[in-house]
């Protein structure tokens, strides 16, 4: 099948590799139903996201038993199937030091057996795994996951350069929300952000919602990575699309500010974004540093390439 036919099979609009939920639907919440996935998908379509990866974050073990089959079932629904590209597992194999809004007590050590169990529950629908490469057993997990045609992305980690290199050699190809999901204070150099920006083998995913990353960082990241190695993602929180206020999800109390910033109520970590892909692309557009063709590349073509569609 040639590229033009593949693209024709993907609905028009932006492609988002990391959507935690939308309009109150949480893909990591108990009692998730196919109808909930439908409601979130319709709302995303109305806002310009044509296809996306529903993202399941670090959670109780029993939740995976419930939600992964629900998401897999949603991907079999004729009206939903074209828009759901596969499940992104963000965790639970993440670093405590760089956990962000992920619950520390639910983080787990790398486990091939657990991943295989979850893949079975998901009926083979997991297409991306975010993992901290410094965890014990992470390299073996990466090799195993990549052998199952799943994209491995490095995220929520504090790995040094040698560890990152080993992870890439094992098959990791992406960085999840690069510049975020990391300790708030880092050495000037070396540090994991510089290393990942400098590595041409890694595609960087960036949240360009105007809250997660400052303009200067985005400019530098684009120069370092080049447009071909940049993917825009929303990292939309389950409360994205809802009015500002106080909410609870992922076991934490969060505040959605009037300006769109979502943060932990009792901390200073961000907790996903309130943005859609169109919002993120528009923020980039207003910077005036990418052409319309390049915006199409980072918001649609590159995400599809990461998943092997191109």
Please write the CATH class name. Answer: Alpha Beta
The structural domain count equals 1
What does the overall shape look like?
A: globular
Report the sheet-strand fraction. Answer: 15-25%
**Which residues form runs of ≥5 with pLDDT under 50?**
none
Q: Please bin the fraction of helical residues.
A: 25-40%
Within CATH, the superfamily carries the name Metal-dependent hydrolases
- Please outline the major beta sheet: 8 strands, parallel
> What is the CATH architecture descriptor?
Alpha-Beta Barrel
Total strands: the figure is 13
In DSSP terms, counting alpha (H) and pi (I) runs of 4 or more, how many helices? 10
> Within the CATH hierarchy, at the fold level, what is the topology?
TIM Barrel
User: Structural class per helix/strand content?
Assistant: alpha/beta
- Average pLDDT for all residues: 94
**Spatial ordering of strands, largest sheet:** 1-4-5-6-7-8-9-10
Radius of gyration: 18 Å
Measured between the Cα atoms of the first and last residue, the distance is: 10 Å
- Secondary-structure element order, as H and E? HEEEHEHEHEHEHEHEHEEEEHH
